Hints:
This protein has 24 helices and 28 strands. A hairpin with a 5-residue loop joins strand 8 (192-196) and strand 9. The strands form four sheets. It has an eight-stranded mixed β-barrel, surrounded by four helices. Helices cover 47% and strands 20% of the residues. Bound molecules: ligand C2E and calcium ion (2 copies).
Amino acid sequence: MERxxxxxxxxxxxxxxxxxxxxxxxxxxxxxxxxxxxxSNDETERYLSELTLQTSLKVNQRVSFNLELLxxxxxxxxxxxxxxxxxxxxxxxxxVENGPFxxxxxxxxxxxxxxxxxxxxxxxxxxxxxxxLAGEKGxxxxxxxxxxxxxxxxxxxxxxxxDPAAAAVVGWVPPDRMRMLLNTxxxxxxxxxxxxxxxxxxxxxxxxxxxxLKGDNVIQSLAAQGRFEEGDLANxxxxxxxxxxxxxxxxxxxxxxxxxxxxxAEGGWYLLSIVPPHAYTSSLADYTAFSAATTAAIALxxxxxxxxxxxxxxxxxNREILRxxxxxxxxxxxxAARFDREVTAKIAKGRPFSFVSVDVRNFKLINDFFGKExxxxxxxxxxxxxxxxLADGECVARISSDVFDIALDETDPDRVDAWLERxxxxxxxxxxxxxxxxxxxxxxxxxxxxEAEDVVTVRDRANTARKGAGDVSGRLFRCTFYSDPExxxxxxxxxxxxxxxxxxxxxxxxxxxxxxxxxxTGETVGAEALVRWDSEDRGLIPPDEFIPFFExxxxxxxLDLNVFEQVCRxxxxxxxxxxEPLPVSVNLSPLHLQMPDFLDAFEEVRERYAVPPRLLExxxxxxxxxxxxxxxxxxxxxxHARGFLCSMDDxxxxxxxxxxxxxxxxxxxxxxxxxxxxxxxxxxSVVSSVVELAKKLDMGTVAEGVETIPQVDILRSIHCDAVxxxxxxxxxxxxxxxxxxxGEDGGEIHP
Length: 751
Ligand code: C2E
Ligand code: CA
Ligand code: CA
């Protein structure tokens, strides 16, 4: 993203410069055209030299640009270093894609050429390669074949010092990719150039239709096809061999030609510029146009070359920035970005490993107390301790302030635990003599990565495990191993299934009582029995964690009856103690309703304790009403027939409507706490009409889950009968309830 923006601004700059350049070039061209009018016939010689000069400039520029490209690549490769063939190939690829080279490769000190996707090849003895190995860049003197019969120009530069894997960088350009002579022909197509070796071998043959010469070597072709003045051909040949420039005339295919030969900058190459003699006089316009075009072309080419180099340099800088992004300034180790790259690769390989997340307990305190500098030192120390325990292929990074992520090849929890123990030990090594004021305690979470997952998920899970890390238990670290919640739930349920019967027998299911307080008198007028599981292993478990499961496995039937029995026993005790018993309600799971005569069991218990049924209230949830209104009505009738009270629990929480009320003659309506969770007017007016309607149907009303005094005031104002909620009391153990109700002051409970 950032990079595209930067590139875009480069492009804009580039565009502006290009426009300026075009303007200047336009002016130069116009001036040239004007001056061209004045050029007289006898300046033909100059015309040819001009052609030669311009073209050779262009060719030289092209060749040196190609060499520069290879040098740039050399620099890049030195930076990548021996980071695996993949990285080197990835660095080379854009050079091939965007440059003139058919392929680019590197040569090691022994002269062996390595090109991605091809067999290695020994190039010792190839002059240009030998020179590069000796520290000199250049291009081959003639076209050379490397991988097959096709010939091309071989460019070679010494590798950048510091590259561990290459001594030279080479690129190969076949003639069809050489663009050296692009747009150098005169506009009439009469003047053109060839590039040849000093021995006359064609490097690049002009594709101009007037280029009659055939064959691979210009001297041989001229000898066969051209007519020269005495000795001229020999002079030309010797001149080129001696590195001189010169001029020669000849006739080929019946047409006269003037030719300049000029040595080029690299490879001992020559530029041959050829024009017909009449071209300079009759094609003055051509010349001026040519000259202008050439100027423009050269200017543009130079600029393009500059732009190209600029882009490469920017790319290089970007890579530099990337490198900075890959090194954590505090620890000197990986950053999260770098770590994620490694871990993604690790996941892709498919071998299981552990993703461990570690943080330092109370690191903030250490930081505050000893200062940031010391804090950083400690982080570096921990990082080094982790690094020193890593095997090959494992890695670590500091992810955020004091959180480290580690990829360990071990997945067995015991071994990971042992590894962490060693780490905690090592991290506290400086503290062996107890000189330091603090201990480094590590919180760890580990997640075993076994299948293809993304880093984000993996890290999340390790973090989840770390945050849920259990007790330290006297060690310098604690570690939790992640397992998914669904699996955890199944495990817990299995545990409960195994324990429930025994727990029932040994009385682990205990009854808590929550008072119901009259709004008229402020007295406790009853209570609801709410069960808790006082588990030996897990402590006090709230009903929401086991009732839903017991409703699925049916155990709730036994449990409800047990709660009911505990309540009956309690009432018996109250009565035996001469206390005025308060009515208590118990919850009935909807599951009971599926068994006809389930009330027989309840009645049998009640009789056993000889509790008056009017003191016992059975709560049915309105869920039942939704499922089967007819059945519900029958059950309510049966409850009444046996003398119990009956209430509708959670009214308004779900599906039932006010309509249900008139069909189901319950004694008490328990208005769900949902109504009191928000403070809005609508809910209030609904409650008000519900209370009103209940009154008309001769039902008592209990508002559940009331938490504030203003709510109590409103409920009192709309004549709700009673409130059961934290505002008065949470559910409490029986002895606490008894103290509250039958205590010294007679049991009045005030808000
Ligand atoms: P419930 O029957 O609606 O019981 C009322 C729940 O609301 C109780 O949660 C109680 O602690 C809670 N509560 C009371 N006042 C307030 C308050 O002011 N604010 C809030 N936020 N909550 C309040 P508890 O004891 O956790 O029971 C949860 C549910 O478990 C009960 O809801 C009931 O459906 C079920 N349950 C409890 N005991 C039994 C039982 O013996 N048998 C059956 N079948 N279900 C039971
Ligand atoms: Ca209830
Ligand atoms: Ca309720």
